[in-house]
Write a structure and sequence with these properties.
The protein has 11 helices and 6 strands. The protein is α/β, with parallel strands linked by helices and 270 residues long. A 6-stranded parallel sheet has the order 2-1-3-4-5-6, sandwiched between helices. Strand 4 (139-149), helix 7 and strand 5 form a beta-alpha-beta unit. Helix 1 packs across helix 10 (226-237), helix 4 packs parallel to helix 6 (112-135) and helix 6 (112-135) packs parallel to helix 7. It is globular, with a radius of gyration of 18 Å. It starts with 9 loop residues before the first strand and ends with a helix. Bound molecules: nicotinamide-adenine-dinucleotide.
């Protein structure tokens, strides 16, 4: 049982593919805290994933939308406002995909058509979502919009290739649109920079297990799990974080502020 932190709040959750997805855990947590929402994903993911199971558990309507398609986003926002009985208080962008990573391309051998697709799906879609929400006047005052990022936006990781640029762009969009939406409607816009997490998107990065273990060793609190992330997202959707906007918030067990840990020293001097 939750604490009714989101009682009376309505929203849209993008990106629940299966029970490992950060969006899946978030949907369960939001429901637990009294929020109501629609669930959405790309039409192809609907067929491959298990979103209908989640929808049943959360008593939520599923509305398919490719997050790169403005008309589909427009329909999604209009239908969500209608289905939920009013304007929205929260939106979660939990979307990422790189065809170059999927096809095992190295950073020195990028396919640029796919590169643009990576940026469109993983970053520009966030702008499209924000712009759609503004144009349809779909958000309530003091609403909260969150997207998920990764520290490879700021530091180099060999196998994260074009997703690093997508995350840098995503964080930049949160700052630029956050300034605009604050003035327009007091809506806040943030990204959460999450620890490596064992999900379909995470496991798609080659060498994932190594950087999962490395991050764990380099984070005083260990890696943040998908459940921990869901709780943080709930906090950002709640009224307890009203003055937080235009931030890239580290949710990483201390990784980003760590030089070296005792654990790592012991490991390297063994
Ligand atoms: N797993 C990690 O290690 C990790 C770490 C930091 C940040 N993140 C970020 O968290 C977010 C969620 O990923 P996850 O780890 O839960 O994995 P996931 O694979 O469960 O979720 C990714 C989602 O993106 C959706 N998607 C892909 N293309 C789409 C499109 N065109 N339109 C709409 N949806 C589309 C997929 O269907 C899927 O549901 C992503 O932004 C990811 O980059 C993940």
């Amino acid at each position: 049982m939750g604490n009714n932190l989101l009682k009376g709040k309505r929203g849209i959750i993008f990106g629940a593919l299966d029970e490992n997805s950060i969006a899946w855990k978030t949907a369960l947590k939001v429901k637990d805290e009294g929020g109501t929402f629609t669930l959405t994903n790309a039409p192809i993911a609907m067929r491959l994933g298990k979103i209908n199971e989640l929808a049943k558990e959360c008593n939520a309507q599923v509305i398919p939308a490719d997050a790169t398609s403005e008309p589909e986003l427009s329909t999604l926002f209009s239908k969500s406002v209608e289905a939920l009985g009013g304007k929205l208080d929260f939106v979660l962008h939990s979307i990422g995909m790189s065809p170059n990573i999927r096809k095992g391309k190295e950073y020195g051998d990028m396919n640029y058509e796919w590169y643009l697709k990576t940026l469109d799906i993983s970053a520009l879609s966030f702008h499209k979502i924000l712009q759609t929400a503004e144009k349809l006047d779909a958000m309530n005052e003091w609403g909260s919009i969150v997207a998920l990022s990764y520290i490879a936006s700021q530091r180099s990781y060999p196998d994260y290739t074009d997703m690093a640029q997508a995350k840098a762009m995503l964080e930049s969009i949160a700052r630029s649109y956050g300034a605009r939406f604050a003035k327009l409607k007091k809506v806040r816009v943030n990204t959460i920079s999450q620890s490596p997490t064992k999900t379909t998107a995470g496991a798609g990065i080659s060498g994932f297990d190594v950087f999962f273990d490395y991050a764990k060793m380099m984070s005083p609190l260990g890696n943040a799990s998908a459940e921990d992330c869901a709780k943080y997202i709930v906090a950002l959707f709640s009224d307890y974080t009203r003055m937080v906007t235009m931030q890239n918030l580290m949710h990483d067990g201390g990784f980003s502020s760590t030089g070296i840990t005792q654990e790592m020293i012991e490991r390297l001097t063994k």
